[in-house]
Amino acid sequence: MAAELSPIDQAKFVAARRSVDFVEDGMKLGLGTGSTAAWMVRCLAERVRDEGLQVTCVATSARTADLARGVGLKVVGLDETRWLDLTIDGADEFDQNLNLIKGGGAALLQEKIVATASDRMIVIADAAKEVAQLGAYPLPVEVIPFGWQTTKALIEETLYSLDVMARDVALRMAKDVPLITDEGHYILDLNLKRIGNPRQLALVLNQIPGVVENGLFIDICDVVVIGHGDGRVTVRDINSGKVETGSVDITESRNIFADLD
Ligand code: 5RP
Fold first, then answer.
1. CA angle 202-207-209, nearest 5°?
2. Secondary structure of 228-258 in the HEC alphabet?
3. Ligand 1 centroid to 41 CA: how many Å?
4. How far is the centre of ligand 1, averaged over its atoms, from the C-alpha of 155 (Å)?
5. Positions marked catalytic
6. CB neighbours (10 Å) of residue 103?
7. Does pTM top 0.85 for this prediction?
8. How far is the CA of 37 from the centre of ligand 1 (A)?
């Protein structure tokens, strides 16, 4: 199975595998959503099984909660833990300041609440997610279904006064109906091509009635673990400025792949 992974999936896997080295016994953990986060959940479960770690997890989506419970992790609600030691999650883009675009998997609202409730957030990503400037990936914005067309028009109007390169806003669909998030909302994807001032955009979007939250994560992420298709991993810590490189041997995780066969 490991041999069948594409270079991108290998990169996601090695980032995920390296990130769970940051987990310590007794920790309260936030579990992200997406394909990279799914690898992380499996790698975490392997460490819990092999080393007998006691960890309590809060998931950022129903699908992550299902996966985590399925691989034997203890999952509780955020109201039970209130605060978390560490959240590990994927991202759609990250820049040199570790500001992020998230929400490609439609889980940005719970992801932002959980990451903000954590002492530390680690992002796991393949190297292609690093950008000089955010915005090539469409920015997801979670909105209330009531009056969503009015909210969309207000967002479009607001974008005209902001430093972005394009201003195309689209309702995210699931086949031929609007996609509904875990919290019962819609997602508008803002195709902006380049975001000149992500901090300002994040603040302004959240002032619009009908907007619940946007997918810009500003000053939330502490560490990025970047995976490469050849097994190399780079760990960059924004607070200490440290950059560390290493590699992950995929063959050591054959139990994870055996589970998937
Ligand atoms: C979900 C997210 C994901 O973290 C993001 O979309 C990355 O996904 P993947 O790891 O599958 O590339 O923000 O809302």
1. 125
2. CCCCEEEEEECCCCCEEEEECCHHHHHHHHH
3. 14
4. 23
5. 111
6. 30
7. yes
8. 7
Tens digit of pLDDT per residue, the chain (261 long)? Answer: 555 889 999 999 999 999 999 999 999 999 999 999 999 999 999 999 999 999 999 999 999 999 999 999 999 999 999 999 999 999 999 999 999 999 999 999 999 999 999 999 999 999 999 999 999 999 999 999 999 999 999 999 999 999 999 999 999 999 999 999 999 999 999 999 999 999 999 999 999 999 999 999 999 999 999 999 999 999 999 999 999 999 998 887 767 776 675
| Nearest CA residue ID for atom 10, ligand 1 | 36
Q: Does the domain made of 139-214 have the CATH classification 3.10.105.10? A: no
Pocket of ligand 1 (CB under 6 A): 32-37, 89-92, 102-108, 111
> 2-130+219-259 domain in CATH 3.40.50.1360?
yes
Minimum-distance ligand 1 atom for the alpha carbon of 89: 4
The answer for residues whose C-beta is within 8 angstroms of residue 124's C-beta and 6 or more apart is 12, 15, 16, 18, 19, 32, 36, 37, 40, 88, 89, 90, 224, 225, 227
Which residues lie below 8 Å from residue 195, measured CB to CB, with a gap of 6+? Answer: 133, 134, 135, 139, 163, 164, 201, 216
Write out the two tokens for 68.
């985590």
Task: Parse the chain into domains and list their residue ranges.
Answer: 2-130+219-259, 139-214
